[in-house]
Amino acid sequence: MLQSPVEFFRNLPKKVCPECGQTVNEQAESYLMECDYCLSKKSE
Ligand SMILES: [Zn+2]
Q1: Tally of domains in the chain
Q2: Which of 4, 6, 10, 22 could lock 35 by a disulfide, CB 3.0 to 4.6 Å apart?
Q3: How many Å lie between the centroid of ligand 1 and the Cα of residue 29?
Q4: Closest CA to 18 of 29, 9, 27
Q5: Pick from 29, 22, 38, 20: which is nearest to 12 by CA?
């Protein structure tokens, strides 16, 4: 059975960066969706 990409990512237990699709390492204090790479790009 094929799932749509949206359903696939929604079913993943880990967060996935909406910018690049990388798995985001969850941190207890983290409320951000983007991965470290995309965050560092934005903060520049
Ligand atoms: Zn990213």
Answers
A1: 1
A2: 22
A3: 18
A4: 9
A5: 22
What are the residues whose beta carbons fall under 8 Å from the beta carbon of 19, sequence distance 6 or more? 34, 35, 38
CA of 6 to the centre of ligand 1 (A): 16
Q: How far is the CA of 27 from the centre of ligand 1 (A)?
A: 15
pTM, 2 dp:
0.48
What are φ and ψ of residue 19, in 5° steps? -80, -50
Q: Could you tell me the distance, in angstroms and rounded to a whole number, from the CA of residue 24 to the centre of ligand 1?
A: 8
Q: pLDDT for 23-40, tens place per residue?
A: 887 765 556 678 888 888
Domain of residue 15: give its range. 5-43
